[in-house]
Every structure is written in structure tokens, then in C-alpha cells.
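Query structure, 260 C-alpha cells:
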């Protein structure tokens, strides 16, 4: 049998809504977590933020009162209030940054969105995650990365699937959050088991099969994972796993025929 020489596997993943893709050594197979609106809106307050105006300079007291009165507030004042922990000001400042174009200042967008989300304003989470995908792990300030972690992790562990997907995306060698720790991996596994039955098995199988060469043991592990994943209640996961199993079987019989 010639499984050790397998180089690529091509698989249609239309069920994931991603179109036909070729999966090879250098490629990756994105597997979005199936989520609904309710799970995206699960909110956790990680920082209650500014509670009093007592120590604010008068200009910021005036700006904050104007904000509470739904009046227009200067962007610099919104930023200054957000820097002091005002989560509503942070939310409004994110709106300003969005209007200017998130791609023009992704670091500020991610950071101030994190302040807003940390204060329970979870509707800023999509902008936070979108901006984070534009960040350079080599240059993003450590203090800001720590802020993202302090906000995303509690939301992910509480069941917010958008936050969970972000935690998975940003953990790893060369990524924004750095190498995945065993503790974080265990928490991710726990959430995936709860929310996305079969998806993690599918991802693990894909990671194995992406290798340029495979041992019999690796192939057996991948097949076992795919067999579990195809029993998932989530149609996209089950269909993709079944398609991969068919591809594995086709390669197996094709190689066997060549060897004979």
C-alpha cells in the first residue's frame, strides 16, 4: 500500500459554503463554527469601567454629559473618555473608527472595541475580531494583546461562539496570542464538545491529512476522527467528514490497484 506517498487530497466543501477548494500541504481548511445570533450575543462584563465623573477634567465631564444626552461629542473627547474606562465612549469611538475605515487603524479599532465589549457592550465584538485579523503579531503592543485576551477568553468560555472562533484563530505559533497552552486547549476542547459536536474531530483529521506524507498509524487516526465527525448533528461538519472519508477510500483503492 502506498499511503506514505500521498501528497494531496482534493475535497469539495460546498456544504461549508466555501466553494470547491484544493487542500494540500501548504493549504488550510477553514472550518467556521456554526453559530446563531443568540450565541454571538452572549455577554460577559470583564471590566465595569468608569463609574464616576468626579476625577474627570471639566471638559470631559461636559463631553460625557453630552454623550448621555445623545449629543454630538468630539472624537478626541470620546477617545479620552474611553482611555479612562468609559465603555460607552469606547463604543462611540469605534463607530468613528469604522467610519474612517477599520483597515486604516485596526489596532485602535480592536483595542477600543475590546474596552466596549469588556463593559458588556458585546455588539462591538464583530468589529473587534475583524480588526484583530488585520493586526501584525510582531508589532502589536503586548498591553493591547493582553486586553484582547482578557476580553475574548471569558466570552468564549461563556459560550459566545464568535469569541470562541477568535480564540482558536489567534492562538498558535506565529499568531497574535502566541503558542497554544495546554490549559487553553483544554478549555477550547470543552467548548467545542458542547457547541460544535464533531467539528474538532474534523479539524484534527484535516491537520493530520495536510501532512505531505502519512504513516499507517496517522491514517488510521484520521479515519477514526472522520468517522466520528460524520455522525455530527451539524450538517456541514457531517457532510465534509463523509466527503473526506470517500476521498480516503478512493485514494486507498487507487493506490492498491497501482501496486497490483
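Result returned for the query:
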Amino acid at each position: 500500500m502506498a499511503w506514505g506517498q500521498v501528497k494531496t487530497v482534493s475535497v469539495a466543501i460546498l456544504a461549508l459554503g466555501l466553494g470547491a477548494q484544493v487542500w494540500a500541504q501548504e493549504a488550510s481548511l477553514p472550518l467556521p463554527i456554526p453559530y446563531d445570533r443568540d450565541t454571538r450575543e452572549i455577554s460577559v462584563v470583564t471590566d465595569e469601567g468608569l463609574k464616576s465623573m468626579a476625577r474627570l477634567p471639566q471638559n470631559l465631564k461636559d463631553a460625557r454629559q453630552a454623550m448621555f444626552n445623545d449629543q454630538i461629542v468630539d472624537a478626541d473627547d470620546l477617545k479620552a473618555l474611553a482611555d479612562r474606562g468609559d465603555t460607552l465612549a469606547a463604543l462611540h469611538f469605534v463607530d468613528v473608527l469604522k467610519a474612517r475605515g477599520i483597515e486604516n487603524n485596526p489596532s485602535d479599532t480592536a483595542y477600543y472595541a475590546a474596552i466596549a465589549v469588556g463593559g458588556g457592550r458585546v455588539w462591538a465584538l464583530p468589529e473587534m475580531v475583524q480588526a484583530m485579523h488585520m493586526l501584525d503579531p510582531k508589532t502589536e503592543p503586548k498591553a493591547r494583546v493582553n486586553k484582547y485576551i482578557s476580553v475574548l477568553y471569558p466570552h468564549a468560555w461563556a459560550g459566545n461562539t464568535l469569541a470562541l472562533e477568535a480564540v482558536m484563530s489567534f492562538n498558535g505559533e506565529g499568531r497574535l496570542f502566541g503558542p497554544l497552552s495546554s490549559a487553553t486547549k483544554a478549555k477550547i476542547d470543552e467548548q467545542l464538545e458542547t457547541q460544535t459536536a464533531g467539528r474538532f474531530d474534523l479539524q484534527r483529521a484535516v491537520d493530520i491529512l495536510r501532512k505531505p506524507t502519512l504513516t499507517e498509524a496517522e491514517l488510521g487516526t484520521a479515519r477514526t476522527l472522520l468517522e466520528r465527525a460524520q455522525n455530527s448533528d451539524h450538517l456541514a461538519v457531517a457532510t465534509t467528514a463523509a466527503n473526506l472519508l470517500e476521498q480516503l477510500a478512493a485514494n486507498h483503492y487507487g493506490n492498491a490497484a497501482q501496486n497490483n
